[in-house]
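Mods, move this if it's the wrong board.
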Amino acid sequence: MYPHLQNLPLPAISDAKPLILIGSDNADLILPLQPVRAGPQGTPVAIYTRLGWSLQGPCASESNRKQHCILTRTLHEPQLQITDDVERLWKINILPYTTKQVTRSKLDHFAFKTLEDKTVKVTVDSEIHHVIAVDWAQKTKRNILMCNKQFKIQDGGFNIRQWISNDPDVVKDLPSEARSETCELWLMQGNTEPHEGTLGLRWQCEKDCITYKYRPIAYSTLTLNVVYRILASQYDPLGFLTPYLARAKVIVQQLWQHKPQWGEPLPECELLTEWHLWESELKLMNQVSLPRCIDPPEPVNQRQLHIFCDASEKVYGSVAYLKSETNDGSSHVTFVAARSRVAPKKALSMPRLELLAAQTGAQLASTLTSEMTIDIHKVIMWNPNHNVTKLLIKKYDSELHHYGAERRKFWILQGHEAVKKHQRQCHDCQKWRANPEIPLMADLPEARLRLFKAPFYSTGIDCFGPMYIKIGRRREKRYGIIFKCMTTRAVHIDILDSLDTDAFLMALRRFISRRGCPFELLSDCGTNFKGGENELCKAFEAMNYELKEKLAKNHIRFQFNPPFAPHFGGLWEREIRSIKYGQRSILGTESVSESVLRTVMTEVESILNSKPLGYTSSDISNTDPVSPYTLLIGRSDPALPQVVYLNEDRLTKKRFRQSQVLADNFWRKFIKEYLPNLQQRVKWMDELRNVQTDDVVLIIDHLHTRSEWKIGQVIETYAGSDGRERSAKVKTSDNEILRPVSKLIKLPKYD
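Not the wrong board. Structure tokens:
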């Protein structure tokens, strides 16, 4: 039509409506790159820019149409009435861009005001574009950007299509091939209830809600295969149908108890009736709907995700709700998701099931907070059962490796007491923290109360050392053995060449020759003492009948303490400490000859036997305190001369009765001054639970670290004279051992 426009690649434009303006603020897009092709006055002008060829000016053949403009985006929003305003803007004369104040007409001001008010700037690939501002622009900005990028995605061979929206104006101007079939029926044929399939569900576009679709499965005979097909066809990604579907899962679990075959008909039973009832309710799924949008239309200032957990004997699970608080103070609560599990066939305790429910709640909260694109300000876990507190404490106690209580994420009322209570019941916590439960200290044993008996009637024995002596140029070991009178606390010390049985038996013969034969010997479980008992028993059994009958009264009774129980022999263990102290004071670290060592041990024995029994008064008028030497040699100190008694203090002038007077004087002071002090309990004063058979215990072994202590089970207990259990036999993984209760720590049984 116009000669100067021939051979130009101008696209055909039909029913174009302007939406976006390109002005002097983007001068690089409208500056001509080639000479302008102008014709006679009144004809259009062709200009080649970075956007391609475009026409400016009137077209005589289309005088009845409105003038055109350069169109760069095709998002349409007729409600804003912007088209006519933009066209009026392009009808005015174009003024050159300048930083100086330019005088504009009222139409100019109206057009620029419309541009600023009705459009927003969006950055796409580092380019700023003006797009139409609609009420829901913030919600659909991602879709708008995808539309803007569509042309570049198509260059890579990708074609985005099947567009649909709950607002028809958003997709109205898209090509028909880019819209979904449901969208086409909605826009072109006026379908009032459009449903679009999404994620196995149905989206009701106009109402913007999610609905479910009933998928019937035809079958002639109900088999286990059909049951699983029906159950698997009910797709519920959000978990809104969890209470309903859980019923079917429980029925299926119970059906397996009848051991059905996969393809055989299910037997008639009550469970089959329950299944048919459940299946008859499937057709009601079409009536279930829930809103797609979980946020209210008003601006939200805070969102809370509430997770509810619960468990029963058959099912456990959790559900999440979103609570949104708007600026006006109102709250909006919507369902988000739910999860459930069928309880295992193996019976579990309710606390255990509550723990599993809490675990599903924690997993659900973690998934939602990481996948949801909205900001969640707070996550709150709920459980109608107070066991959740115990489960939380148990969970974090395990994660912290039983280190102790730390309040980091949850604040539990009276949390310190709750944590302490859990630690007392936790097997691993008690393994690292617990102490032995030692029963009430027993009364004085009978061996400590052999009144008016000869010294060393009841004797405790033990060995100590080694000590080193010099024999020529070499050094040899020697060991000490102590004989301790359990009543008078008299001490007899001897030297052993070794710790074998023969050395002990010879020391025992020397002791009997000097101190007399004891009625009983008490000791620990040393192999030399055990061997000595065996040798004496064998020798006694080997005697002929007449000699055995005559010596039966002199037969020594052995009594052994449990292994690793030094407090059972505390009386002589304390004296060994005194012996070592005296030895260090006299010899230091010097090695001496054997004769010197024997002399030193004899002097230490004398010092110990001269110690007063009980409290010593500082008043010079008080009589001498009683000591073991008072009974052994007739005076409290062997360095002092023999006391001269008056005639009235003697029972008779016969001197053979003088020893009886001295003995009576010893026992009178012993009972009055010393014995009352032995009745006091300075520890183990509480009545505690006795160790019982089948108790799980941790065995204390100070030769190893606590992590290496063995765990065993009590198979037999041994009570003392007061009826309280004092020792126990424990079965470990490899043997059976005897231990005092002071070396056993009771542990809670594993859950």
